[in-house]
Amino acid sequence: MKIYDANKIIPGLLILVGLFTFPFLYNIGGAAPAPKPELPKEQKTCVQSLAFMKAGHMQLLNDWRDQVVRQANRVYVGLDGKEFNPSLQNTCMECHTSKVKFCDQCHNYAGVTPYCWDCHIAPKENQ
Ligand code: HEC
Ligand code: HEC
Ligand code: HEC
Q1: From ligand 3's centre to the CA of 18, what distance in Å?
Q2: First vs last Cα of the chain: how many Å apart?
Q3: Which of 37, 43, 86, 105 has the maximal Cβ count within 10 Å?
C-alpha cells in the first residue's frame, strides 16, 4: 500500500522551498538598500557642511586627533566660526548619539570597520 503520493508531495515540497528562498535569491544581483543614517533631531548643522562631512569626515577626525595629541590644541573652529572641542566621543557622539544607527549604517554598507572603537568609547545604545 502507498503511504503517500510522491506525485503530489514532491512538487509541493519544491514550491515550499521556492517560497522560502525567493526573498534571498531575489536580492542577489540587486543593489542592497542604500544606508539611512539617522540624523540628529535637535541640531540642524554638523561641524562642517553636509557635503564636506560626507566626503571628508575621516580626514577631519585625523586632523582632530593630530591637533589634540600633537599640538595639545583643543579648540576647532568649524562652520560659521562656531567653536568645538575636537573630540570623537565628546563632540561627534554628543550629536550623533547612536553609533549603530548612524556611523554603522554607512560603514556596514561600504564595508569599512574603523578600529577607533577599540579605544574610544561609543555611546550606550538605547533600544
Ligand atoms: C552639533 C551637532 C553635531 C556634531 C558635533 C557633529 N555632527 Fe555630524 N551632523 C550633524 C547634523 C545635524 C548633520 C546633518 C547636517 C545637514 O543636513 O546639513 C550631520 C551630518 C553628518 C554626516 C553626513 C551624514 C549623511 O547623511 O550624509 C557625517 C558623516 C557626520 N555628520 C559625521 C560627524 C563626525 C565624524 C563628527 C565629529 C567630527 C560630527 N559629525 C559632529 C550634527 C553634528
Ligand atoms: C553617510 C555615510 C557615513 C556616515 C554617516 C559615517 N561614515 Fe565614516 N565612512 C563612510 C565611508 C563611505 C567610509 C569609507 C571611505 C573610504 O574608504 O574612502 C568611511 C570611513 C570612515 C573612517 C575611516 C576608516 C577607514 O578604515 O578608512 C572613519 C574613522 C570614519 N568613517 C568615522 C566615522 C564616524 C565616527 C561616524 C559616526 C559619527 C561615521 N564615520 C559616519 C561613510 C559614512
Ligand atoms: C590604541 C587606542 C586608540 C585607537 C585605536 C584610536 N585612538 Fe584616538 N586617541 C587615543 C588616545 C589615547 C587619545 C588621546 C586622548 C586625549 O588626549 O584626550 C586619542 C585621541 C583622539 C582624538 C582627539 C581627542 C578625543 O577626545 O577624541 C581623536 C579625534 C581621535 N583620537 C580619533 C580617533 C579615530 C578617528 C580613530 C580611528 C580611526 C582612533 N582615534 C583610534 C587612542 C586611540
Answers
A1: 49
A2: 57
A3: 86
